[in-house]
Design goal:
about 85% helix, Growth Hormone, Chain: A, 18 helices, globular, mainly alpha
């Protein structure tokens, strides 16, 4: 069906999207506080993100297909209700396992929402006007991320981390009412075939293994049998899922959509860009919160500019891709991200907050410009009768980037921080004339979550005319700066690879892939 007032319906959908994106943005400033509250190490903090995105990425294509078959509004409203209840559960959580369970439920709720919103865009707007709508959608998502980062930081500093979950839950209930009253039902032609339960299990195993791999490698080591077992499980499940998708009438992951280069390459590029962007955000969260004078509110201020710059570029890019080639816009945006990544590597512990903000503005502007261009290319390659399944797949690629980037960057950040802090203590301790036993004791303290030095250890260090706490603090600062730099170098390589793919995408779509798109 076609809505009489598409923009009125779209605004109602945008509010539900805004709520979920703002709630996701709350996680970055909340993560250090939640980590301290439950007493978990930095490496395991990635599980807070992994569990959320595990549910989101696994169920996004499933719920997208479910919406094709049973009605997208029904799935949307159910997702908003689940999301609201799970936000309340996270705020109340008495322990870490309960909190993780609530996070998983939040991801499932969002998996019901985003694919439906993406599918509504293709129904409400013709292709020649779709770029503008996608620009507005990207603007809304970016605005949610920007306001969530700043508001989250302020709320956490003043009211504590549970406050962000209470507010998100309340906003989700408002969004539920808005969608219920204003959005019409749009149901695609009912498809034959039973639900692919084995495929869903394989998808869950593949994503759970691969998403959590950096976290387990950071805790058990890259050579650990546990790490290798998880890697083998993920790869094997992925291969089995791909083979099954070609032999099943209604697969969870539709191989006919993924086999279209016009869909697969833009989705892969966007995954890499999201991985890069998420790695920037979460490494900065720990860097700013742990450097001298750093607070959650400061990080919220940084995210305001990071996402706010995307607010400027997204609508502009949306208008441009309705008039010019979206692939060109994507290449320019990725080149901007590469330039920003090279600037990011130069950030140090004593770098001013305004300089950090300047770097993040470049990164945010580029991300905002690339998003509508990538979405338009990918959505144009999806057959209309499979729009829910296709947008669900795109949502899966999009949402795989955030947890992969966060777990990857936090694993590198945590490992580098521990190693460099230890190395700095060894060097500084030896220079101060401390004996190896005292240096080892200081190293163990620096690597622990203890806040106060033991009196006996402090006295042993003071005997050498050195203040123990000052020695540890300087070593931690050495580790903090090196950790951010190492993350920056790795992310620079990733965004450079995404740029190369975008150049290949341009060449590819002038040939066979474009013909494939024209034949659908």
């Amino acid at each position: 069906m076609e809505a009489r007032n598409p923009w009125g319906v779209f605004v109602a959908l945008l509010f539900g999207t805004f709520v979920t994106i703002e709630a996701a943005a709350f996680q970055a400033p909340a993560l250090p506080s939640v980590t301290r509250h439950f007493g978990i190490p930095v490496n395991l903090a990635a599980l807070i993100l992994v569990l959320y995105f595990l549910a989101l990425t696994v169920f996004a294509p499933i719920m997208g297909r479910f919406g094709d078959q049973h009605g997208r509004k029904k799935v949307l409203t159910g997702g908003l209700l689940i999301f609201a209840l799970s936000e309340f559960a996270a705020a109340w959580a008495p322990n870490f396992p309960t909190f993780l369970t609530a996070r998983f439920a939040q991801g499932f709720g969002v998996a019901c929402i985003l694919p439906g919103v993406f599918a509504y865009v293709t129904h409400l707007f013709p292709e020649q006007r779709r770029g503008t709508a996608l620009g507005v959608l990207t603007f809304t998502m970016t605005f949610g991320a920007a306001s969530g980062g700043l508001l989250g930081g302020l709320l956490i500093d003043r009211l504590g981390w549970p406050s962000v979950y209470w507010i998100s839950g309340a906003l989700a209930l408002v969004g539920l009412l808005t969608v219920r009253l204003l959005v019409p039902e749009i149901r695609a032609k009912r498809m034959d075939g039973t639900f692919d339960y084995p495929g869903a299990m394989l998808l869950f195993a593949a994503i759970a293994s691969l998403l959590s791999l950096p976290t387990w490698a950071g805790n058990f080591g890259a050579r650990s049998p546990i790490t290798w077992a998880i890697a083998v499980t993920g790869c094997t499940s992925l291969v089995m899922l791909w083979r099954r998708s070609g032999r099943t009438a209604t697969p969870v992951v539709d191989a006919t959509i993924l086999s279209r280069m016009a869909f697969a390459l833009p989705s892969a590029i966007y995954w890499l860009h999201m991985l890069f962007f998420s790695g920037i955000v979460y490494s900065l969260a720990f860097f700013i919160n742990n450097r001298p004078g750093g607070t959650a509110a400061q990080f919220g201020f940084v995210t305001l500019f990071l996402y706010g710059s995307g607010l400027l570029s997204a609508p502009l890019a949306g208008r441009l891709i309705d008039r010019f080639e979206p692939r060109t816009v994507s290449i320019i945006a990725l080149a901007g991200s590469l330039a920003g990544a090279l600037m990011f590597v130069g950030i140090r512990v004593d770098t001013s907050l305004w300089m950090v903000i300047a770097v993040t503005c470049v990164l945010g502007f580029s991300m905002g410009a690339n998003t509508p261009a990538i979405m338009k290319m990918a959505f144009s390659a999806i057959p209309p009768q499979k729009m829910g399944a296709g947008t669900g797949l795109f949502s899966m690629f999009r949402d795989l980037g955030s947890p992969t980037g966060s777990s990857f960057s936090l694993a590198v950040f945590g490992a580098t921080l521990a190693y460099q802090t230890s190395a700095s203590l060894q060097h500084r301790g030896a220079s101060a004339g401390l004996d190896p036993e005292t240096i080892d004791a200081l190293t163990r303290f620096a690597g622990s979550r203890a806040q106060t030095l033991p009196d006996e250890l402090s006295a042993r260090v003071s005997a050498h005319a050195v203040e123990a706490q000052s020695l540890v603090d300087h070593a931690r600062l050495d580790g903090l700066g090196t950790a951010l730099t190492n993350v920056g170098y790795l992310l620079t390589v990733l965004i450079g690879f995404a740029l190369l793919l975008a150049i290949c995408l341009r060449r590819q779509l002038s040939g066979p892939a474009q013909e494939s798109t024209s034949r659908r």
